[in-house]
Prior knowledge:
It is a single chain. About 40% of the residues are buried. This protein has 13 helices and eight strands. The model is unreliable at about 265-275 (pLDDT under 50). With about 280 residues, the protein is α/β, with parallel strands linked by helices. The protein has one domain (about 60-275): Rossmann fold (3-Layer(aba) Sandwich).
Amino acid sequence: MRNFLNRLDETRFLGLDVWEFSWRSLARRYGRWFLASVVLRHPCRTLRGLRRYRRAKCRPREEEPTVVGSPSVESLRDQLAEGGLVVATGFCQKPLDPPCPAGRFNHRCVVWSLNPRRELPPACRGCPIRELGLKTLAAGGALHIMTSAADIADDLFMPSLRHPRWRGAVLAICPYSIPPFGLAMSICGLHGILFSYDRGDCRDYLAWARADEGDKPEQTFLAPSVHRRLLRLLEEIAEIRSARKLPAYSGFHEEKDFYLPVWDAPGIVPRAQAD
């Protein structure tokens, strides 16, 4: 069966390359949710999303980000400058040595939950999520650390399907996850720009399934050029906001699984930048 499904993916049967992922996911909470709450409950939106997905060809690329629901990175970037941006990366980007003081398989980041009178733990000083948070805040976005597929569905996909909360998303994910992410986003109406990890990422379904349960012994990394491009995109959004004289945020407020930008946060950002 697996060889048959892989062959369907390789040939993009019916314009899709998520056959193996979809079939094997039916045994997991995410797959059952997607079938019952999206495909069967919203058949018309599903068909429209399938057509959008086939046109977009959401396939991982080494250097270029994948764009979902928009003609180009630039057009979506200009929209996101007006607000409604969420920036998300996987828990697997959290450091291992020294280990993340917030733990790994959760949505928390000590830097953005920190009392400003405390010093940053050593693990946080070079953490890519800390740097991502700084750029996200300047861009006026919310920061989200992704865990399981079921949580991602609850946090990102379902709100977009019901009452759109986000204008768009900038995501760092495994190349293996780009096709199923692109399909779910196309159906649920969540526009986005997807950047692929280059090292430590899940390369097949078994590795993805283990990580989906929190079993991820590797730390993932973007290629240096891709990391710079992601940060530069957020800087460009911040520059557009500044040119349009949109107000700047002072910090994050932790709410459920997100760090939301707020006006009157304590002095976390200047101190974090100075370390």
